[in-house]
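Retry 2 of 3 after timeout on previous attempt. Resubmitting structure tokens to design endpoint.
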């Protein structure tokens, strides 16, 4: 089942989500790689198997194998980083902020696709995972790459809607 078809299975009380999914799929601010990579990364971050399968099925003709891998890698590495850096950000003890993380995260430096696109995927996942420090860090890198606030907002809209779709479907 494609993501667009899965969204049609949402109950009537989630009509706004169905409409928002339709808007996301016709989003023109982002390239196909940015849009569909974000959709796949966020689906993985939501950890809802039907959503992951539907997103990947629809993205199959829109993403290169490298971009698909990068989207999944963004969700994976942010699952670790968002916990670690959210802890260091929230902990009142200042020592944690200066200690080396000692975590492998090579994919961030060499994601196999354009750095800005990988950062966009990572920012969307970080928004779902609620890591302010990571959001700030990815936002800064995206600004350095010339990615405007409108594109960043579009990626976060994808994250918000996809997260709501996953939660709604999980509750059924």
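Retry 2 succeeded. Sequence:
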């Amino acid at each position: 089942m494609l993501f667009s078809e899965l969204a049609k299975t949402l109950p009537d009380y989630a009509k706004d989500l169905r409409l928002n999914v339709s808007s996301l799929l016709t989003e023109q601010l982002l390239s196909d790689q940015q849009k569909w990579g974000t959709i796949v990364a966020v689906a993985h971050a939501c950890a809802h198997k039907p959503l992951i399968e539907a997103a990947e099925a629809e993205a199959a003709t829109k993403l290169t194998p490298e971009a698909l891998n990068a989207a999944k890698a963004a969700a994976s590495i942010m699952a670790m980083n968002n916990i670690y850096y959210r802890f260091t950000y929230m902990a009142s003890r200042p020592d944690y902020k200066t200690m080396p993380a000692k975590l492998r995260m090579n994919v961030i430096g060499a994601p196999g696709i354009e750095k800005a696109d990988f950062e966009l995927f990572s920012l969307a996942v970080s928004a779902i995972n609620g890591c302010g420090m990571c959001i700030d860090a990815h936002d800064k890198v995206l600004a350095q790459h010339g990615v405007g606030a409108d594109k960043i907002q579009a990626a976060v809209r994808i994250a918000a809607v996809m997260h709501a779709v996953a939660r709604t479907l999980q509750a059924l």
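Attempt log closed. The CA atoms of residues 13 and 62 lie 31 Å apart.
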